[in-house]
Design brief:
The complex is a heterodimer of chains A (268) and B (156). With 268 residues, chain A is α/β, with parallel strands linked by helices. In chain A, 22% of the residues lie in helices and 32% in strands. In chain A, strand 11 (194-199), helix 5 and strand 12 form a beta-alpha-beta unit. In chain A, helix 4 (180-186) packs parallel to helix 5. Chain B has 156 residues and is of the alpha+beta class. Chain B has helices at residues 5-10, 20-27, 110-119, 121-146, and strands spanning 30-35, 40-42, 50-56, 59-65, 69-76, 81-82, 96-99, 103-109. The longest helix of chain B is centred in the C-terminal third of the chain and has 26 residues, at 121-146. Classes of the chains: A alpha/beta (268), B alpha+beta (156).
């Protein structure tokens, strides 16, 4: 439960309000992180927030976090220049089932900052291309200026089917304009052998799930990363309860089959 | 061997499930068109005398906004339908449809199809149902974009 000191060794600006920071542990062992897990990041004297890990999975080494500055804590994280020391706890939570997806097609559906928790899945599939069928990355953002990892998206296109859409763009934009679920309709995959990994605003995930189900992907193979008000990270405080589950402890990754009974309950 | 237009149409999602007779009726009003990148399928204010099914390429729907220039509203991709202004008076286009890539499409004569719908109400009902589905899908997508979902963030 006690944060350990980590030093910021690199900080890159992705968009006007989003930064990717790399942390090195100052004490203890370098953590090995499963894809989809998150860290609790403590800015001393400001507060603590959960942030999904966006770096390559299962490699002991630096911790890579992509953070959108939307409040006091996240703004303080994004303002942390190399050399700054922050407190990190974790990794916490379960992970994307990348082994279970092997031998079939993979569809990664991301909206906005939701690409960050999915980046480890993309990096894993790139390192293990022979283990997977067609891998599609379908990514939506508000505008072209809000797209994360733009240089990497271009690299990923060499081996993966990458489609990007935005809500609004200038006429010189050559990508799609529209919502992410529409990209699912046009993606090439074999539904019966496809695992979908979905992360983004919950309403986007709702419509993405509808589109995936309409294509014939089974609910047990549609994986969603959920976000609620995670505070302790270890299932003690109860802030992130969703129905019978605590997202920090049992999630954040669930199948649509597991979540379906709870997502439509208005009180939750 | 060159395939007939109704054979080509039978493979497009928009015409899924239509029987041979209906496909032949529709194909009788259709012709294949090719539009170069940057060229327009139609321009705002012009007569809306047809609709298009994209067989290859992407089209941007633009709207000219005074003092701001052209605004990109939406992109339409392979397999999708563009244009429903031919269905209702005053039969005028409301947007510009610009080819973002080289486009191959099938264009259908609106007056020809309306006449066939009037003559065969069952056929007309089926076709209107298909367009209603397209309209609903576009409306839902527009509503989702109105939510500005990516702008919603937790302030921590």
């Amino acid at each position: 439960m006690t944060p350990l000191p980590f030093r910021v060794v690199d900080r890159r600006q992705d968009t006007a309000d989003t930064w990717t920071l790399t942390f090195e542990a100052l004490v203890g062992e370098r953590p090995t992180i499963e894809p989809g897990q998150f860290m609790m990041v403590y800015v001393f004297g400001v507060g603590e927030v959960p942030i999904s890990v966006s770096g390559p999975p299962r490699r002991p080494g630096p911790v890579v976090l992509t953070v959108r500055a939307v409040g006091a804590v996240t703004q303080a994280i994004c303002a942390s220049a190399p050399g700054s020391v922050l407190g990190l706890r974790g990794p916490f939570g379960n992970s994307w089932p990348i082994e279970r997806a092997a031998d079939g097609d993979v569809v990664v559906v991301a909206g906005g900052i939701g690409l960050a928790p999915l980046r480890p899945v993309v990096l894993w599939t790139l390192d293990h291309l022979a283990d997977y069928g067609t891998v599609s990355v379908l990514y939506g953002a508000r505008t072209p200026a809000d797209l994360l990892y733009t240089a990497q998206l271009a690299d990923w296109r060499r081996d993966l089917a990458v489609e990007v859409t935005v809500d609004a763009a200038e006429p010189d934009w050559r990508g799609h304009v529209g919502v992410v679920p529409k990209l699912i309709d046009g993606a090439i995959f074999s539904p019966e052998a496809t695992t979908a990994f979905v992360c983004g605003p919950e309403i986007m995930m709702h419509f993405a799930v509808e589109a995936l189900l309409a294509r014939g992907v089974t609910p047990a193979r549609i994986m969603l990363s959920m976000e609620r008000d995670m505070r302790c990270g270890v299932g003690l405080c109860g802030h992130c309860q969703l129905g019978p589950t605590l997202i920090c402890r049992d999630g954040p990754v669930y199948s649509q089959e597991e979540l379906a009974p709870w997502l439509e309950v208005r009180e939750l | 061997m060159q395939r007939s237009l109704d054979e080509v149409l039978s493979e497009l999602p928009f015409f899924d499930g239509l029987d041979r007779e209906a496909l032949e009726l529709i194909a009788g009003c259709g012709r294949n068109v090719a539009v170069a990148e940057g060229e327009y399928l139609f321009r705002s204010g012009a007569d809306a005398d047809s609709f298009y099914v994209l067989r290859h390429g992407s089209v941007a729907l633009d709207l000219f906004v005074p003092a701001r220039g052209s605004m990109l509203i939406e992109t339409i991709d392979e397999g999708e339908v563009i244009g429903w202004s031919w269905l209702f008076p005053p039969y005028l286009w409301h947007f510009d449809a610009r080819a973002v890539t080289p486009v191959r499409a099938t264009a259908f004569d609106g007056a020809c199809l309306r006449a066939k719908c009037d003559a065969d109400p069952a056929f007309g009902y089926d076709l209107m149902g298909r367009f209603a589905q397209v309209l609903i899908d576009r409306l839902q997508a527009t509503r989702l974009r109105l939510l500005d979902i990516y702008g919603l963030g937790r302030s921590r």
